[in-house]
Design a protein that fits this description.
The chain is of the alpha/beta class. The protein has ten helices and ten strands. The protein has helices spanning 43-50, 72-77, 95-105, 110-123, 139-151, 169-186, 220-223, 227-231, 239-249, 260-268; strands spanning 3-14, 17-28, 32-36, 59-62, 65-66, 79-83, 157-161, 189-194, 205-210, 213-219. The longest helix has 18 residues, at 169-186.
Length: 269
């Protein structure tokens, strides 16, 4: 499997404040990583680096291309990044036009554009908002519109920087399923940057950042076996993992369970 992100010895500072000191990282294609860390850990800066929004002078590759001005057009044509507040990125006064714009830029036929908008607007629960002005929506609705406009292009790399934080819990549950479907069907890599530990249960892998350093990278279920990884970096274990670890300590169950039904079954055995 190829690498969609390759970083070697990234050093980045704001004045005298060092964000990264020789950070190295590789992310495989078609993976679903949660990038977890408290505020100030370097999460958002890393997300910005990957889309060429920070000035760097080091080895960074995205989609196999060196991150430099010459390649930025190609890199961004295959990538999408969404921020917590997407409003500054809106370029129209109509939700339907906002979603249509990236497909129009790619010269899709009108019939195809209509079909794609119908599908993605249903999946993102915004079909009833298509005639609205995106600037006048609630924070959660704005995030859903931005997500639909990103997914409609089926990018190879989707970066979410706290981009689902304002969506209500029930809608967010279905959005996770939509993201997993798009990832599988389109060989998409998802990097979800967040400080909310519960969200790591939705991805397959986790990257934990602390003070600009990678303190863990690997499988989610392996990470959840160790409460120490989280507590040492001022993070909370997801509720079910925390409960499972306590039950394991007393010998009630033998492994960490992150699925409620499986945890109940383990308790009844």
């Amino acid at each position: 499997m190829g690498k969609i992100v390759e970083i070697q010895n990234l050093t980045l500072s704001y004045g005298e404040h060092v964000i990264f000191d020789e950070l190295s990282l590789q992310i495989p294609e078609n993976s679903f990583y949660t990038v977890l860390g408290k505020t100030g850990s370097g999460k958002s800066t890393l997300a910005r680096v990957l889309m060429g929004l920070e000035e760097i002078h080091t080895y960074v590759k995205v989609h196999g291309l060196y991150l430099n001005p010459k390649n930025m057009g190609k890199i961004r044509s295959q990538s999408q990044i969404l921020f917590e507040n997407p409003e500054p990125e809106f370029i129209t006064n109509n939700v339907l036009e906002e979603i249509a714009f990236p497909l129009q830029s790619l010269e899709y036929a009108n019939e195809t554009i209509e079909k794609e908008i119908d599908v993605v607007s249903k999946e993102c629960h915004i079909k009833h908002l298509l005639s609205r002005d995106p600037h006048q929506l609630s924070a959660g609705e704005k995030q859903l519109v931005a997500l639909a406009a990103a997914l409609v292009t089926k990018p190879k790399l989707l970066i979410l920087d706290e981009a689902l934080s304002m969506i209500d819990r029930e809608t967010k549950k279905s959005i996770w399923q939509v993201l997993k479907k798009y990832q599988k069907e389109n060989n998409m890599t998802i990097l979800h940057f967040t400080d909310y530990s519960e969200d790591i249960l939705e991805g397959t892998d986790v990257l934990i950042l602390s003070e600009g350093k990678i303190v863990y990278q690997g499988n989610v279920e392996v990470a959840l076996q160790s409460e120490k990884i989280f507590t040492e970096n001022q993070l909370e274990l997801p509720f079910l993992a925390n409960l499972s670890n306590k039950l394991r300590y007393y010998g009630t169950i033998s492994s960490v369970e992150i699925n409620l039904e499986k945890l109940v079954d383990a308790l009844w055995k």
